[in-house]
């Protein structure tokens, strides 16, 4: 017998709270600072796609948030599955943003820093 006697497929909410707290502390400050205008010293050479990269990290964070909150609230199976599908959309958007940021960095390096107006 376990210490947690809750029912359903959501598991122990303590684990989800810990995961969200750790991901908030580790993933949220850097992209917010980048979007506010600060560039980390280790990424100064790759500034062309910096904002896209920050939005990508925020999409990964949204994936974790949308996937974890219904489980913490002990929502029904259907609600958890709907939120999980929505969170997969956030993960796909994050992957696309990371690929676009890499492409933008590549174009900026090969052209000599000149990117088109559609990528700014």
Top keywords for this entry?
120 residues
What does this protein structure show overall?
This protein has 120 residues and is mainly alpha-helical. Helices cover 67% and strands 0% of the residues. The chain contains four helices and no strands. Helix 1 packs antiparallel against helix 3, helix 2 packs across helix 3 and helix 3 runs antiparallel to helix 4. The N and C termini lie far apart (57 Å). The mean pLDDT is 85.
Question: What's the short story on this structure?
Answer:
This protein is mostly helical.
Tell how many strands the DSSP assignment holds: 0
First CA to last CA: what distance? 57 Å
What would the principal axes of the Cα set say about the shape? elongated
Averaged pLDDT, please?
A: 85
Number of helices: 4
List the helices and strands and how they pair.
Layout: H1 13-27, H2 29-35, H3 50-72, H4 77-111
Helix pairs in contact: 1-3, 2-3, 3-4
